[in-house]
Write a structure and sequence with these properties.
The protein has 205 residues and is α/β, with parallel strands linked by helices. It is 42% helix and 13% strand. Strand 1 and strand 2 form a beta hairpin. Bound molecules: zinc ion. Zinc ion binds next to helix 4.
Length: 205
């Protein structure tokens, strides 16, 4: 007799599979999350499901800076209190949250939604670079701060952007060293971020 091993009921297997698609969630974690949800009160599980639907329905991307927003243009792009001559280029929306929390920056932002990574098949055309170039054409922006992460992909992206932006006559600066190498901007503390922002230096190419 060739018996099949006992598998999880189909809805359970489906949820495990969905969790497994999320970044940083391995098969074991996906199982744990699923069985945690199974034990959760129905109202709590429903609240979670609704929160997921809500972000998908109400949150969009700002057509100017590409940040996530519930109004377009986003509050930062629409604000008259921001310095419109400086654009800080970051990889992810979470990096903006970190910089805003540090209170060290009053200019505008641009979110690339990733970094150049040949290993993962991510080239410049996958990032929001054309949108950045379009913003610079108006001539209002005089400085672009490259605030990509201090790791291999972030540095590659920064170098690529430097080559692209310098011929446009805009000042290109890079956040000062001091950020933990290999780390993500979003995890840097406020003091480190403020120092990196204030100590930013023009890149020569
Ligand atoms: Zn915006």
């Amino acid at each position: 007799m060739n018996e099949h091993p006992i598998a999880a009921p189909a809805p359970v297997a489906r949820l495990i599979e969905e969790f497994h698609k999320l970044p940083g969630v391995g098969p074991k974690s996906a199982q744990r999350l699923t069985y945690h949800l199974l034990r959760m009160p129905a109202a709590e599980a429903k609240a979670l499901a609704e929160a997921i639907l809500d972000v998908k329905e109400r949150i969009t991307f700002c057509t100017v800076c590409q940040n996530v927003t519930d109004s377009n243009p986003c509050r930062i792009c629409a604000s008259d209190r921001r310095d419109r001559s400086i654009v800080c280029v970051v990889e992810e929306p979470l990096d903006i949250l970190a910089l805003e929390r540090s209170g060290s920056y009053q200019g505008l932002y641009h979110v690339l939604h990733g970094a150049i990574s040949p290993m993962d098949g991510i080239g410049p055309e996958e990032l929001k670079i054309q949108e950045l170039l379009a913003r610079l054409r108006s001539g209002e922006v005089t400085e672009v701060i490259l605030a990509t992460n201090p790791n291999l992909e972030g540095e590659a992206t920064s170098m690529y952007l430097t080559r692209l932006l310098r011929p446009l006559g805009v000042k290109v600066t890079r956040l000062a060293r001091g950020l933990p190498v290999g780390g993500d901007l979003e995890y840097a503390d406020d003091v480190t971020l403020t120092r990196a922002m204030e100590g930013r230096q023009e890149v020569s190419g």
